[in-house]
Every structure is written in structure tokens, then in C-alpha cells.
Design brief:
The protein is built from 10 helices and 14 strands. The longest helix is centred in the first third of the chain and has 22 residues. Helix 1 links the parallel strand 1 and strand 2. It has a single domain, classed as Rossmann fold, CATH 3.40.50.720. The chain is globular. Helix 8 packs across helix 10. The chain starts with a strand and ends with a helix. The chain is of the alpha/beta class. A 6-stranded parallel sheet has the order 2-1-3-4-5-10. Strands 6-9 form a two-stranded parallel sheet. The protein binds NADP nicotinamide-adenine-dinucleotide phosphate. NADP nicotinamide-adenine-dinucleotide phosphate binds next to helix 1 and strand 4. The site of NADP nicotinamide-adenine-dinucleotide phosphate has 27 residues, from helix 1 and strand 4.
Length: about 290
């Protein structure tokens, strides 16, 4: 199977390349394939002739999405729509990524794939628009994977790293940290997501549509930080703080735990977030 990967330098992209042992992954640099340049997408797809296109690229720095909504929509909607149209033209299977932030967080139990969406901020809105574009143009040959709180070995350049690395870095500067307790999420290790994705690829025809893929379990960011410090053997004090979902004027969902209903039905499961964190810390910080 030949896979065209967009976003090879990102957290998920790096995990996919490192953990792949079955497929031929072709991953052009951004200079060769820019998601916002239709001609470069068409050229890559027509010359490389992949079986599947995996798009992990996004504009997903949340505060920047609020201040630059046109840019958020130009990546997360317009570029994804163009990619879908080209996949349709060349009859290619598309897998693209979305977010737990398409939900408003009013539910008290994990969100299923068919729960109604209601994004609260520009990022969620732009990703929801991208989801609709993919299904409009490739209804029978695409999967949108919604995931949550990604952390990977490389960190995300556009988001300034990832939550785990940033809290570990904070620990060397601050004895006490205030961390939000008003959001319940499932942080997800990109290695686990990548391994699940390889299984999804195998079952892709049965999984067309929306798919939730996150590690098991849930926690608040404050709980997660306490567990990071516990596993790292750090004694910094984590002070849970309730900001009622607000970062400035931007609102985040209070509860955005995803239920991997469709993947589980095919026997595709991810480990618990606590176990995932343990493996991440062991592989990245083993000499700490
Ligand atoms: N991170 C999270 O917490 C989270 C949560 C839920 C959903 N998601 C979704 O999951 C997906 C993967 O996230 P991630 O954290 O792995 O992302 P990431 O680390 O930020 O990586 C994004 C990748 O996209 C590339 N890219 C950016 N703009 C591009 C363009 N115009 N053309 C081609 N490539 C471009 C980046 O290249 P450069 O290195 O050159 O910038 C990078 O390789 C995204 O769709 C995201 O919205 C993420």
C-alpha cells in the first residue's frame, strides 16, 4: 500500500513514519506539497499515485485561530475541501483529522461519533467545516478521525510543543503551577494513535465516515499534570483552577471525552492514557 502523508514533521506524522512497517509512506516536504497550494497537491497525487492520502496538517494554535479566523478557515476548511476534490478526481481514499473541539462539552458521558456537534470557538468551527467538506466530496472513500490532546515525541511546532513537554519544562521554573480543572479530556499519545491508524487502514472500507480515536479513560488537565509529575518523580505543587472553560474570551468545552465506538466494534482499541503517558515518559525522558 502506498500512502501519501501530509505533515511528516508533526507529532502524528513522526509517529506514523517511525512505527510503519507495512506500507510505503511517501512524505513530501512542505516545500513540495503545501496543503494550501492546490497545484502542489494535484502534482503530488498524480505523480506519486498513492492508494491513500493521510492529512495530518492543520492550523490548530487555538488563540491564533481566534485572532486569524480567515487563516484558520483557509487551512482547516478551504485547503481540506480542495484536497477532497482532488481525491475525488483521482479516486483516492482520504484520511484526515479533526478534533474533540467540534463538541460543546455539555454532555456528561463520552461523545459518540453520531452525537450532534456544536463548536464553541473558531478552531472547532473551522475543523467542523473541514469534516463537512470531506464528506460532501468523498462520501464513500474517506475517514475523518477525531482525536484529543495529542502529544508525541517531536512536539507540535505550531502549538509550541505539547502539554507534557511544556509541563515538564515548567517544573524547572515554577515550584507551584495553576492548571485548569474545568476541562475533562483524554490526552492521547501519537504512537498509540498511529498504531490504531494502521489497523484502521486495514478496515478502511468498513470505517468510512467519522471515527473517534483516543486513549482510554479521562482526566482534567490538572489531574494529568499531577500524573506527569508523579511519573517523573517531581514534587512541584499542582493547584487545580476552575476558569469555567475560558482562555481570555475563547471558550473550550468542559467535557470532550470521545468514545471510540466504531473502532472498538472492529476490535481496534487504544491503551489507557496513564499507560500511554508512562511509555511516552520512558522513551523521551528515560535519562532524565
Ligand atoms: N495536537 C492536538 O492536541 C490535537 C488535538 C485534536 C486534533 N488534532 C488534529 O490532529 C492532527 C495532527 O496534529 P499534530 O499535533 O500531529 O500536528 P502538528 O504536530 O502541529 O503537525 C502538523 C504538520 O502539518 C504540517 N503543515 C502545516 N501546514 C502545512 C501546509 N500548509 N502544507 C503542508 N504541511 C503543513 C506541519 O509542517 P511544519 O513542521 O512545516 O509546520 C506539520 O508537519 C491535526 O489535524 C490536528 O488538528 C490535534
Amino acid at each position: 500500500m502506498r500512502i501519501l502523508l501530509i505533515g511528516k514533521t508533526g507529532q502524528l506524522g513522526e509517529s506514523l513514519i517511525r512505527l510503519n512497517n507495512n506500507h510505503e509512506i511517501v512524505a513530501p516536504s512542505r516545500e513540495v506539497l503545501d496543503l494550501r497550494d492546490v497545484n502542489s497537491i494535484r502534482k503530488s497525487i498524480s505523480t506519486l499515485s498513492p492508494d491513500i492520502i493521510i492529512n495530518t496538517a492543520a492550523f490548530h494554535n487555538l488563540p491564533e485561530c481566534e485572532t486569524h479566523p480567515l487563516q484558520a478557515f483557509s487551512y482547516n476548511f478551504v485547503a481540506v475541501q480542495n484536497l477532497s476534490l482532488i481525491c475525488k478526481e483521482y479516486n483516492k481514499f482520504l484520511i484526515s483529522f479533526s478534533t474533540d473541539y467540534v463538541f460543546d462539552g455539555t454532555k456528561q458521558t463520552p461523545y459518540n461519533e453520531n452525537d450532534p456537534i456544536n463548536p464553541l470557538q473558531i478552531y472547532g468551527l473551522s475543523k467542523a467545516a473541514g469534516e463537512l467538506a470531506v464528506f460532501k466530496h468523498c462520501p464513500d472513500s474517506s475517514i475523518i478521525i477525531r482525536t484529543c490532546g495529542l502529544y508525541g515525541i517531536t512536539g507540535s511546532k505550531s502549538r509550541g510543543g505539547n502539554f507534557v513537554d511544556n509541563r515538564i519544562s515548567d517544573a524547572s521554573q515554577y515550584a507551584e503551577l495553576e492548571i485548569s480543572s474545568d476541562q475533562t479530556v483524554t490526552p492521547t499519545f501519537t504512537d498509540d494513535l498511529a498504531n490504531a491508524l494502521f489497523k484502521v487502514i486495514k478496515h478502511r472500507d468498513a470505517l468510512v465516515g467519522i471515527l473517534h480515536l483516543v486513549n482510554e479513560g479521562s482526566c482534567t488537565w490538572a489531574d494529568f499534570t499531577k500524573e506527569i509529575y508523579r511519573q517523573m518523580g517531581l514534587t512541584n505543587l499542582v493547584i487545580p483552577i476552575n476558569r469555567e472553560g475560558y482562555s481570555g474570551t475563547m471558550k473550550r468545552p468542559a467535557y470532550s471525552v470521545l468514545n471510540n465506538v466504531r473502532a472498538k466494534a472492529l476490535g481496534i482499541t487504544l491503551p489507557h492514557w496513564n499507560d500511554a503517558l508512562n511509555r511516552f515518559i520512558s522513551s523521551k525522558y528515560k535519562n532524565y
